[in-house]
Amino acid sequence: MAKYLFSLFLIFGLLSCSEEKKAKIPEVPSGWQKMDTRTEASLRGLSPLTDQIVWASGSDGTWLRTLNGGETWESGVIAGMDTVDFRDIEAIDANTAIVLSAGQPAVIYKTMDGGNTWEKKFQGTDEDFFDGMAFIHTKGYVVGDVVDGKWALIETKNEGDTWKILELSPDGPKGGGSFAASGSGILVDYDNIWFASAGNASKIYHSSDNGYHWNTFDTPIIQEKDSQGIFSLAKIGGGVMVGVGGDFLKIDGVGKNFVISVDNGKTWRLGEGQAPSGFRSGVQYFQRFHWLICVGPNGSDFSKDGGENWVRFSDEGFHAVKMDKTSTSIWASGSDGVVAKLVY
User: Fold this and answer.
1) Per the domain annotation, does 11 fall within a domain?
2) Per residue in 323-344, pLDDT tens?
3) Is residue 185, in this structure, part of any structural domain at all?
4) Residue 24 resides in a domain
5) How many whole angstroms separate alpha carbon 181 and alpha carbon 135?
6) 184 assigned to some structural domain
7) Residue 144, domain CATH
8) From the CB of residue 96, how many other CB atoms can be counted at a distance below 10 Å?
9) What is the domain range of residue 306?
10) Opening angle at CA 196, ends 147 and 58, nearest 5
C-alpha cells in the first residue's frame, strides 16, 4: 500500500511540476536590460553566440565583445578604420569574428585573437556598398548595392578566410540597393539565399541552389520612396517568413510596414492584424516562446501569432535584434553604444 501511495504522489508531483513549468511561460516580454558598454558608437552589427558571449560592431571602426553576459565589455577600433561604419558582424567563436563595412572602403575584416588584431580579407571596388552578411556553418554571403546592372554578391566557404564574387548574381535596377540598417536584410538556410531590395522596388530575391539561379518576387510593403521598403527578414519555419520595415524618415508610421509569406518567400501579403508601432529595422524569431521581436528607433514590439498581430512592449529604441546561436537569449543594439538583453 505504501508503495502504491508513493507512486501516486510521484505521479501527482510530476504533473504538478509540468503544470508549473507551463504556467511560467511569459505572456509578454518584460522589456530590455541595458548594458554599460562604455562606448558611444552607433551599433548596427550584432552577433550573440550564447547568453554570455556577444560581439557587436558599428561606427568609427568600433568593435565590442563580452564574455560574461554583458557585465564587462572589451572594445576597440580596427587599425586605420576609424572612419568606417562596420554595420554587420558574424561571431564564429569567443575569439573569432568577421566584420563588414558599408560604404567606402567596402571591406571585410576578421579577428582570431579576440579583437587584438584584425586582418583584411576582402576589399570591394570604389563603387561597392555592402548591406548585410549571413552565415550558415562555414558558408557565408554578403549582399551589396547594384553595380553595373548586377547585385554585388560575394561568398565564403571557409568562415571568411577567403571570399569570391558570385558571377551569377541576379540583375538589379540602376541605383538599386538593400538597407544596411541591421545586417538582417539577407537570410541563408543551407542552399537557400534570400535578400530584400529597398526603396521604390522592395522585392525579395531568392536562390535555392547557392546563388546559381535566382527568382524575384514582389511584396506589398510600403515602397513609394527611397526611404521605404523591407529592412529585415526572419524565417520562422514551415515555409513562414516575415519582413518588417516602413519609412525610416517617418519613424512612427505604421502603414504597410510588415509582410508575411507562407511559401518560403514566393508570395507575400500584408499582415492582417495590428501592425508594429512604427518603422522597424530589425526582426528576429525567438523559437523558445514562438515570439517574433522587432525593433526600431521609437520602440520594440512582439508577436506570438506568427507576425499577424504585434504588441508594443518597450519604448527603448534599437537598430538590430538577434538571437544567440544556442537559441536561449535575444539581444539588441542601437545608437550611443547601446546593447541590451531581452527580459521575460
Assistant:
1) no
2) 999 999 999 999 999 999 999 9
3) yes
4) no
5) 17
6) yes
7) 2.130.10.10
8) 18
9) 34-343
10) 80
